[in-house]
Amino acid sequence: MALRQSVGDLAGTLLSIVRTRLELFSLEATEQKSQLLVILGMAFGALLFLTLAVLVFSLTLALFFWPTEHRYLALGGLALFYAIVGGGLFWYVRRKLLFSPMPFSATIDELRRDLALVERLRESGNTAVTKAEQGGNRP
To answer: Membrane-spanning residues where (predicted)?
Structure first.
């Protein structure tokens, strides 16, 4: 009867640990989704209004320099400026994607701790079995 109780307690503990880890994963997934939606919405709005501002600025500058002989230099300068800004933004996004913290890191850390605990328990169980075997082989 004690073995059945121990197995039941162990199964209950394991199910509790799995449930806790799944709840943590669910919370982190919800947080990641919310952050992603907010960032995408803000990025879309920023992109829309910055595109409109760049378009109006470019037209204004082109119309200002059109009657002069420097019109092509002004348009080339605008193109160079836009290329530099675009390259800088591309570099920033690439850097954020490569070096940002991994999503669900708290869940992964908890699972690592769980695995380390199981490994320690397994090692201590093997040590106890080995000691019992050594004690049982003595006359």
So the answer is: 36-66, 72-93
- Quickly list H helices, 1-139: 2-65, 71-99, 105-136
Average the pLDDT over 108-124 and give the result: 78
Q: Look up the pTM and report it.
A: 0.48
Q: Which two tokens stand for residue 130?
A: 């080995």
Signed CA dihedral, 101, 103, 107, 112: sign only: negative
Separation in Å, CA 78 to CA 53, 58, 59, 74, 85: 13, 7, 11, 6, 11
**Is 61 within 8 Å of 78 (Cβ atoms)?**
yes
Look up residue 26 and give its two tokens. 């669910």
Contacts of 28 (CB under 8 A, 6+ apart): 103, 104, 106, 107
